[in-house]
From TrEMBL:
This is Mitochondrial pyruvate carrier. PANTHER family: UPF0041 BRAIN PROTEIN 44-RELATED. It comes from Podospora didyma. It is found in: Mitochondrion inner membrane. Keywords: Membrane, Mitochondrion, Mitochondrion inner membrane, Transmembrane, Transmembrane helix, Transport.
Amino acid sequence: MAAFVKAVNARIRSNPVTDYFFSTHFWGPASNFGIPVAAILDTQKSPEMISGQMTGALTIYAFTFMRYSLAVTPKNYLLFACHFVNAGAQLTQGYRYLDYHHWGGKDKSAVVSKGVEAAKEAVAKVEKSV
């Protein structure tokens, strides 16, 4: 059995394409893409749920590993792309957090919700009269 595994491994490693797809240079970034995908999906949720500290930490993490992915030999461009997307998503979330919590987004949201309630009441009055 050990000889069979050794033979399969040698065959995989002899081809550069399969060697790449069976290495951590591929599977590390591929599995790591869950973080930016989750951040992108979170941009559709309410900004009141965003944690400013976690967003800041993930932004620093993304920029650190963007640098790391180009510092290793051989350069890992897939890891760079993963963290580039993550940095963009985290910066977007950071902007949404700051806009909502520090730049008056809460107040704007309250005004809009009051306007929506007033519109609903007006529609209800019209429906009753009809």
